């Protein structure tokens, strides 16, 4: 939906606050329907290719090392450049989304991803690939948190967690398909051509941009927050009409107090109630993805160097574990809506603690380094960490008001990007010089334990509550 030049914009004040809360209350009572499916199809296609692009370079890195004749250290710089771009992009475009709208920021992030994917595929040396990957990272880092914010702001309180996690599973599907497509391309077209086509496939999000320019509506919550109530009402009325036409019952919108209508200062993020929530989320994001990137980056290498498997067998186990994690996304979706966000996150971290302890005890204390033990350790850690990895985007958006939700989600989730830079380096050092796989699993367990304790002591339950209620 584009802004009509005749649409009235309410000035800041009680009337605008009241109108914004009425829009939010109407959204909260709308059951999931065709409108949400169309929205998730557009936003989710972009998120799928965000996941695909995020791991595609790592998947074909050995081929690029050979093609450009570079060292592993130089290859590591290319990987780190991409993560650095994601860290910066998550914060910068996240802040922009609170100013220019979710729709524009989302389409901007996909445009960056798609255009730079073409440049990455055409890279002529390691320096050009590093620069292009750095720039593409701006879009990769911003897309998922902004897309998660869009979904959060369209979903009602009754199904926000379940649908949000199911939607987020599309990122995991992207991670899962990237190595399969890489294997297909390199085996049929040859490594020299296959890696370029794989990176070039990352331009497909430009199709989402083309479709989204005409069909993706702006978040009604964001519109109402910025005084564009008529536009917000048009979108919500369409959602209500589709739900009614499908025979779905619409409850009477509950009364929500107007609250205070004011702008947003970045300082709010580190002060008072929101400061405490930010501190909680920073720890959760960092620990969850320290574990995620740590074990996913090095587990295939551990299978080969410690478990004595060949690379093909290692890739097979990696694909199997990826399939298990994708399936677990739907288990997590049930948990967050029926058990609650806090306990789901807590249980997930706790399972990963068990996995880390299992690996440490078997490798260090029992001297058992067979591949079944390593694979079992990977499964336990992977099954556990998928709980926070898929539900944190939903949970984060629930802890902040609309005026700062995009920026807050992007800033706190950027610590996952920071973890993605730090974690592989730490575990590479541990494997190379300081104790091997047993110590790696011990550190993974400790990181998960920190996440579990943080959630147990400071976590807030958000299940079945409106976004406006949670922001009070």
UniProtKB/TrEMBL annotation:
GO terms for cellular component: plasma membrane. One of its GO terms (molecular function) is transmembrane transporter activity. It comes from Amycolatopsis carbonis. PANTHER family: SYNAPTIC VESICLE GLYCOPROTEIN 2. This is MFS transporter. Its main location: membrane. The keyword Lipoprotein does not apply. Keywords: Membrane, Transmembrane, Transmembrane helix, Transport. It comes from the Bacteria. Residues 39-463 form the Major facilitator superfamily (MFS) profile domain. The chain crosses the membrane at residues 39-65, 77-96, 105-124, 130-151, 163-185, 197-216, 278-295, 315-336, 345-367, 373-395, 407-431, 437-460. It is a multi-pass membrane protein. It is found in: Cell membrane. InterPro entries: MFS_dom, MFS_sugar_transport-like, MFS_trans_sf, Sugar_transporter_CS. Pfam families: Sugar_tr. PROSITE patterns: MFS, SUGAR_TRANSPORT_1, SUGAR_TRANSPORT_2. CDD domains: MFS_SV2_like (cd17316).
